[in-house]
Amino acid sequence: MKRIHDKLVFNRRVRVLSRELAARLPLNARVLDIGCGSGDMAAAIMAKRPDVLIEGVDVLVRPGTAIEVREYDGTTIPFADDSYDVAMLVDVLHHTDDPGVVLAEASRVASMGVLVKDHYRDTPLAGMILRFMDWVGNASHGVRLPYNYLSRARWRDLWQRLTLSPTRTGEDLGIYPRPFDSVFGRGLHFITLLTKSG
Fold first, then answer.
1. Which among 62, 61, 63, 18 is positioned nearest to 41, based on CA atoms?
2. Cα–Cα distances in Å, from 64 out to 150, 158, 178?
3. Of 130, 121, 74, which is closest to residue 98 (Cα–Cα)?
4. CB-based contacts of 49: which residues, under 8 Å, 6+ apart?
5. 69-71: strand order across its sheet
6. 33 three-class SS
7. Cβ atoms of residues 52 and 61 within 8 Å
8. Domain 2-196 belongs to what topology?
9. Which of 44, 48, 21 has the alpha carbon at shortest distance from 170?
10. What is the residue-wise DSSP string for 56-124?
11. DSSP label at 9?
12. Where do the structural domains in the chain lie, given as residue ranges?
């Protein structure tokens, strides 16, 4: 299953999402990739945007990462306020017990805003599909899987509470090849740049 996933999904996912994320980063941005995993996404973004510098933090630092990665405890990011221009959370918040805590920390260390790629769980079927995708993509890496997906309404409430305004939001991202995107893609994914409004 993992080999099929890597062949059909992983490389395409990095290619598609790195393009979408790169297009939303400000010029000459210094970016902290929180929960960066292997760093492949960050490296692909920097290949498209040589003006951008991305460093990473993760609770589980893998050997041979594509970017510099520093370990952190999953709650407190070990940098001062406004240390970076943008913080980036790519499919990370649903792996946490409290996405609001992690998002607040990301906002604290980023002077301009937080770039988020995550999921919508608006129906029970969406929850089942997301759990399956998460297990296939992450279980073999030892990634924690609490399956903490939020609905659109809960995302909006969280952003409002943290005085973050979603901008440049995209939803139908085309992450998966046809016909799989109609099941695993449509209505389940989003990218947004959250700017500080408070």
1. 18
2. 32, 35, 32
3. 74
4. 22, 25
5. 69-71, 53-58, 30-34, 84-90, 110-119, 189-196, 164-170
6. strand
7. no
8. Rossmann fold (3.40.50)
9. 21
10. EEESSPPTT-SS-EEE--SSS-SS-TT-EEEEEEES-GGGSS-HHHHHHHHHHHEEEEEEEEEEB--SH
11. I
12. 2-196
Question: pLDDT by residue (tens digit) across 40-88?
Answer: 999 999 999 999 999 999 998 999 999 999 999 999 999 999 999 999 9
User: Do 173 and 16 touch, CB atoms closer than 8 A?
Assistant: yes
Give the amino acid at 182. S
Structural contact between residues 11 and 43, judged by C-beta atoms closer than 8 angstroms: no
Q: Name the DSSP letter for residue 141.
A: G
pTM of the model: 0.90
Q: Which two tokens stand for residue 180?
A: 């799989």
Q: SS3 for 168?
A: strand
Q: Do 59 and 73 form a contact (C-beta atoms < 8 A)? A: yes
Helix (H, G, I), strand (E, B) or coil at 161: helix
| Own/partner pairs, 120-124, CB within 8 angstroms, 24+ separation | 120/149, 120/150, 120/151, 120/152, 120/155, 120/187, 120/188, 120/189, 120/190, 121/149, 121/150, 121/151, 121/188, 122/151, 122/152, 122/187
Helices (H) and strands (E) in the chain, counts: 7, 7
What pLDDT digit, counting tens, does each position of 95-113 carry? Answer: 999 999 999 999 999 999 9
Integer-rounded Cα radius of gyration of the chain: 16
DSSP secondary structure code for residue 10 in this structure: I
